[in-house]
Amino acid sequence: MELEITFSGNKQVIAQVGEHKILTDQPTMAGGDNEGPAPFSLFLASIGTCAGIYVKSFCDQRGIPTEGVSITQKHKFNPSTHMVEGIDLQINVPDTFPEKYYDALIKVANQCAVKKHLQEPPEINVFTSVN
User: Fold this and answer.
1) How many whole angstroms separate alpha carbon 3 and alpha carbon 26?
2) Do 93 and 69 touch, CB atoms closer than 8 A?
3) Cβ–Cβ contacts within 10 Å for residue 52, how many?
4) Average pLDDT of the segment spanning 40-65
């Protein structure tokens, strides 16, 4: 897989992902135009949305409606390091959701590929190339 990252006006950075363009920007207080999420916000969102697709697929396979099902993602920041120290994913279900599947929801959400990559991070190499 290869992504092409390009720059567009002010603080906007665009990732070409297959047929999709993902616009990132900075908030106005950081000098951006706030026309898209900041890259770090997009990174954090990838965790919850990844878990979400596993939860959604689990429900779909069993014919369980996903109305009222959501995931609340909360971050624990360390103010001295400015780093995220912990992430909580809370799977919210309506009272009609079958209780026998509560543990299974946690199990499938834990299958998220983004989470697995964070637990065993890949090596990242950065270098310059002349076109």
Assistant:
1) 20
2) yes
3) 20
4) 97
